[in-house]
Design brief:
The complex is a heterodimer of chains A (1020) and B (115). Chain A is α+β, with helices and mostly antiparallel strands and 1020 residues long. In chain A, 48% of the residues lie in helices and 15% in strands. Chain A contains 29 helices and 28 strands. Chain A is globular, with a radius of gyration of 38 Å. Chain B has one domain: Orthogonal Bundle (Arc Repressor Mutant, subunit A), CATH 1.10.10.10. Chain B has five helices and three strands. In chain B, strands 1-3-2 form a three-stranded antiparallel beta sheet. In chain B, α1 crosses α3. The longest helix of chain B has 26 residues. Chain B starts with a helix and ends with a helix. Classes of the chains: A alpha+beta (1020), B alpha+beta (115). At the A-B interface, α1, α2 and α4 of A face α2, α3 and β3 of B.
Chain lengths: 1020, 115
């Protein structure tokens, strides 16, 4: 107790210094006065009495020192002293200090920025109660199930493609989910799916928001509370219930001002009234990482908000339509393996024995407003899902394109690696026709369908999958930057410690213990890294936000990643800062403490043999540090070069149409209640109005724009191929004058005419009559090359089918024209076999060819739309160039950051080289002076210094190229048009480095030639 | 070095506490004189070393101090024992006696006692 009390008293004294010193002086004075008086009484003279009193008291200064040590905390005070002294030393050489701090700040800042992104994207825990109890249901099997449609909202990875091996995924049909939910194996089972585009009216101006459809038990299973009102409950998730909506907290704040009056209000989503019942708790802005939802709606309302029931396909009770992601909360009484086995049992039973509605039957039940679109022996477009509209929802996906042999229905597939806009459905369907074996089942025992429970934390990846690779690559780059920064500062410290040898020698000679000297030096270096760390956190904060806003500005919908400083992030930065400090501080510190101070005091460098030996060793350490920096810089530079070339290759890729002065926007007349034939006439009307707008050369429309990351595929039977074998192509439905507007040249045949649109319309809205003519189609060169060879394309018919039990009848297609190849979904895709069809339904994207800068025309365009229908919002208005930028945003981001980091690495390495050579020159001033006094020409001296610098640069470069070859292969999946070991890039980097290194060496070398021999010789 | 100083300091602290217990509030010089008188020439300590010890005891709460007037009517710092100091004195006295007794016995022990 008393020890603690004493500690606090001392701590207090350490902080407040005054008082005690005077008190001690007063006490000593009084003590001596009393003793002197005593001595005088004893018969001494006053002088003698005073002298004796002082003698008896002892050494006043030593006692004062003891007293001080007793009073405060000597360690703390010495530390304060070290810090004061360190500050003074650092301020004395501002150049060194600034470079060191800046170097560290950049190293630490870059690491913190990227780590905070990784933290936000990859490591954040799910925003729910006890996330460790939540499991995600995944299915897998040996062969894809025989389903009609498969949709994913991008919550987790799916591997399902027609005919693919060992597929797996996490989407389930609604009946399957309901069955899982009834098992009582879990304390809760919840399903959810993206709600697609939601057009909101009833709260100010019409707007488009994002939402999620959730099952009644969703919020209870996740353990979420309401911030206001109540959340969706099972009773809301019934088709008879009133449509209700739960708001996102942030959306509630921004759109409703956080007002409690919002609860109970009615809003319209896709023209369906929803009553707002509550607001979810603040931390929950979306379930899977990176997702952001403005509203949550009951699953039962999914059908009501569907704008095009064509694609609904009786989803609520169709076991062959898989579209829901399912999570469950484990219960203590049912261990995970047991739950998994039970679910697998259920799943297997349903898959192997459950009946599947036959294709035609399912369509028959499918909906009122419009009959199902149909076609061919392999029915064609089933789900160019209009309702989760292509452009609306914004989740990236990494689905392989569907189709291929055995593909049954068509679907909407974002292209492999871009696709920023999903939801998508692929249909890995069955091998059709021919071998019909009723009753059909979803799977067979051989396929071994199973359920695996995976922790939701790791299973629900959301956007993270999409960002993981680039982030890890960037993390590696900034890790290297930090290494360079450390090596750089270590080199600086090393050089400095040599020049401070005399100072250290003085301190040691005056009685400082070696430990104290080491501590002093360590304090200085830790101070440097703390300053660097603080500055680094500021840079990181700014940098991470800049990166995130760059990412969001290129996303069609908000990104739900929250960046913040959390303890892990702080811990990471502090650890890096302190470790860096110790790492680069320790070696020079120990070295200084070992100084043989006699020669050092005499002021000569390299005088004693031992010093020279030590110095030689440390110099080679300095050389090694610089070579290492160069090598590491090369690695980052080669990476940067490869990524920049990738970007350049993608940008200069021949897209096949003219992207300049092209404006695109999305519009969906079904949102305003247009139906059937009205849609087409609306499009035609709008098209002619837009074309008549001054400044617009021509206007057209298509299902979605080219190069938007979206892709539609179609399956058909090609004549003279085996029955049951499916052929496939990309397809795009287009309006009149599409090719003219896009400037895609015709090679053969003609554009669509009015009767083509009529035929397409007839064929797409009903099962075509037996004698209906084939749908006209225009194909591209790649299509001709793949399917026709030398055969005359125009007039060729394919894809007809008389219809069967499983497949509806199809009138097939007839080629009326051939156009040039274009890039379809994204710039990387090599998959360009495409057919164009006349568009008659659904939402569309308009393309406008303008005479000049498209931006200036936007108001006129909006006006033209408003004249036609003021309630129809325009979405995603942008130029084709902006669209391509968005498509390339990941490449741009990575190339930009990597380029920046590459430049940084180069700069740091050059500073290191420069620092080392400057130090070398100053160390060898005397030697250079002697050489020059003996007649050495300045060029020789110049060469002497340059040789060392360039030698180091070359050694570093060679090692660096070796290292780069070892690691860049991991970049290959991100590259385009360039190999990981591209010699051109490596050579360019080497030349760049050589030039910059030469510049860095030249300055100190130049200084060496200016050494005046007499001054140099007098130097000691 | 340090170890030895601590022992000395500890001994000195005990002497200070005992002095204050017997004589009541006293200034530094008075304490030093008293210790000198009791120990005679046996203890060769500079009087000044007393002051760090006094400070330590004060910071531990064993003694308290305040300004007062000395014999020659000048300002002097007077130290007095606190209740905690009294307890500490008892405890240290017991410890000291125990240690002394053990050492005593050890030194008195002869070979046959160990058999």
């Amino acid at each position: 107790m008393s020890a603690l009390r004493r500690f606090f008293a001392r701590l207090g004294n350490s902080v407040a210094k005054e008082g005690h010193e005077e008190r001690l002086n007063a006490e000593i004075e009084e003590h001596l006065a009393l003793q002197t008086a005593e001595n005088i009484r004893g018969g001494m003279t006053p002088e003698e009495a005073r002298r004796q009193a002082v003698l008896k008291f002892g050494a006043v200064e030593a006692i004062k020192e003891d007293y001080r040590a007793e009073r405060g905390l000597p360690f703390l005070e010495a530390l304060a002293q070290d810090i004061r002294y360190g500050l003074r030393i650092l301020a004395k050489s501002p150049g060194f200090t600034a470079i060191a701090i800046l170097t560290l700040a950049l190293g630490i800042g870059a690491n913190t920025a990227i780590f905070s992104l990784i933290d936000a994207v990859m490591l954040r825990t799910l925003p729910v109660k006890d996330p460790s109890q939540l499991v995600l249901l995944r299915w897998n099997g040996r062969k894809p199930p025989q389903i009609q449609a498969y949709m994913t909202s991008g919550d987790c990875p799916n591997n399902i493609r027609p005919g693919g091996e060992n597929p797996s995924g996490c989407s389930f049909s609604e009946p399957m989910f309901r069955e899982f939910a009834q098992t009582r194996l879990f304390s809760g089972v919840a399903a959810f799916a993206d709600a697609g585009r939601l057009d909101l009216t009833g709260n100010g101006a019409a707007s488009v928001i994002s939402g999620q459809l959730v099952s009644g038990d969703f919020f209870r299973t996740l353990g979420l509370r309401a911030a206001a009102g109540r959340l969706i409950e099972p009773s809301d998730d019934m088709s008879s219930a009133t449509a209700v909506a739960v708001l996102n907290y942030g959306y509630w704040q921004s759109a409703f001002g956080g007002s409690r009056d919002a609860i109970g209000r009615t809003i319209e989503l896709n023209s369906v009234p929803f009553t707002i019942i509550g607001v979810a708790e603040q931390r929950f802005s979306g379930f899977a990482p990176g997702t952001h939802d403005d509203v949550w709606l009951p699953l039962a309302d999914a059908k009501r908000i569907t704008t095009d029931l064509t694609f609904w396909m009786n989803r609520e009770d169709n076991v062959a339509y898989w579209w829901l992601t399912v999570v469950a909360r484990l219960e203590a009484k049912t261990p995970e393996p047991q739950a998994q086995a039970a679910l697998t049992g259920l799943f297997r039973n349903e898959m192997i024995h459950g009946p599947v509605p036959s294709f035609v039957a399912s369509i028959g039940m499918a909906e009122p407003p419009r009959p199902m679109p149909q076609s061919g022996p392999a029915p064609v477009k089933l789900a160019p899902s209009a309702e989760p509209t292509p452009t609306a929802a914004g989740l990236p996906a990494s689905m392989p394109p569907g189709g291929g042999p055995g593909s049954q229905n068509m679907a909407f597939v974002p292209a492999p690696d871009t696709a920023q806009k999903s939801p998508k459905a692929v249909s890995p369907g069955s091998a059709p026709s021919g071998q019909v074996q009723p009753p059909m089942t979803l799977s067979t025992p051989d396929d071994d369908p199973r359920i695996t429970l995976v922790p939701a934390q790791s299973g629900l990846t959301g956007l993270s999958t999409y960002y993981a690779n680039p982030l890890y690559v960037l993390m590696a780059a900034v890790g290297i930057i930090l290494l360079i920064a450390c090596a750089n500062v270590a080199g600086l410290m090393l050089a400095r410690s040599t020049s401070r040898q005399r100072e250290m020698a003085v301190r040691l000679a005056l009685g400082a213990s070696p430990g104290r000297v080491v501590r002093q030096l360590l304090t200085e270096s830790v101070m440097l890294s703390v300053f660097g760390g603080v500055l680094g956190i500021i840079l990181a904060y700014w940098g991470a936000h800049a990166i995130l806003s760059f990412v969001s500005s290129n996303q069609p919908r908000p990104i739900g990643y929250a960046l913040g400083v959390d303890p892990r992030l702080l811990g990471f930065t502090v650890a890096v800062a302190v470790l860096t400090g110790i790492l680069f501080g320790l070696a020079p510190a120990f070295r200084s403490a070992r100084v043989d101070f006699a020669p050092a005091l005499k002021g000569g460098f390299g005088v004693s043999a031992s010093t020279r030996r030590v110095e030689g060793r440390w110099l080679s350490a300095g050389n090694a540090l610089v070579a290492a920096q160069v090598a590491l810089a090369i690695v980052v530079l080669v990476g940067a070069g490869l990524l920049l070339r990738t970007l350049k290759n993608l940008r200069s890729e021949d897209i096949g149409f003219d992207a300049h002065n092209l404006v695109i926007f999305d519009i969906d007349p079904t949102l305003a209640g247009y139906k059937d034939a009205q849609i087409e006439s609306f499009y035609r009307d709008l098209q002619s109005r837009l074309a008549a707008t001054p400044g617009v050369k021509s206007a057209s429309y298509s299902q979605h724009p080219l190069l938007s990351g979206l892709m539609m595929k179609i399956g058909f039977h090609w004549p003279d191929t085996p029955q049951g074998r499916m052929s496939e192509a990309n397809f795009l439905e287009i309006g009149p004058e599409f090719f003219q507007t896009m400037r895609i040249p015709f090679l053969l045949g003609r554009d669509f005419n009015a009767s083509d649109y009529e035929i397409a319309n007839t064929n797409s809205v009903a099962i075509p009559a037996a004698d209906s003519p084939p749908t006209p189609t225009i194909v591209n060169q790649a299509f001709v090359a793949k399917y026709l060879g030398k055969e005359e394309p125009v007039g060729k018919q394919f894809g007809q089918s008389a219809g069967s039990d499983m497949m509806p009848r199809s009138a097939g297609y007839e080629i009326v024209g051939v156009v040039r190849d274009t890039k379809y979904a994204n710039l990387r895709s090599e998959d360009s076999v495409t057919m164009y069809l006349p568009q008659s339904r659904g939402g569309a994207s308009f393309e406008l060819r303008t005479a000049a800068d498209p931006q200036a025309l936007l108001p006129a365009i909006r006006k033209a739309v408003a004249q036609l229908n003021p309630n129809l919002p325009l979405f995603h208005v942008k130029t084709e160039s902006e669209q391509i930028d968005e498509l390339l945003f990941q490449e741009r981001l990575i190339a930009r950051l990597f380029g920046f980091f590459g430049g940084l690495a180069l700069l740091l390495a050059c500073i290191g080289l420069y620092g080392l050579l400057s130090y070398e020159v100053s160390r060898r001033t005397r030697e250079i002076g002697i050489r020059m006094a003996l007649g050495a020409q300045p060029e020789r001296v110049l060469k002497l210094v340059l040789r060392q610098g360039l030698g180091l640069a070359i050694v570093g470069a060679v090692v660096g190229i070796g290292l780069a070859l070892g690691v860049t292969r991991y970049l290959q999946s991100m590259l385009y048009g360039v190999k990981w070991n591209d010699p051109g890039t490596i050579a360019a980097v080497a030349v760049l480095l050589a030039l910059v290194a030469l510049a860095a060496c030249y300055i100190p070398a130049r200084r060496a030639t200016r050494v005046a021999p007499m001054v140099a010789l007098r130097d000691e | 070095m340090r170890q030895k100083a601590d022992v000395q300091q500890g001994t000195l602290a005990l002497m200070v506490l005992k002095t204050l217990e017997v004589l009541g509030p006293l200034h530094g010089y008075g304490i030093a004189r008293r210790i000198e008188q009791i120990s005679g020439d046996a203890l060769e300590v500079n009087q000044g070393t007393l002051y760090p010890v006094l400070l330590k005891l004060e910071q531990e709460g064993a003694i308290a101090s305040e300004w007062g007037a000395s014999e020659n009517n000048r300002k002097a710092r007077f130290y007095r024992l606190t209740r905690g100091g009294r307890r500490q004195l008892q405890a240290e006295r017991r410890d000291w006696e125990q240690t002394a007794a053990i050492i005593e016995r050890f030194l008195a022990a002869r070979g046959e006692d160990l058999g």
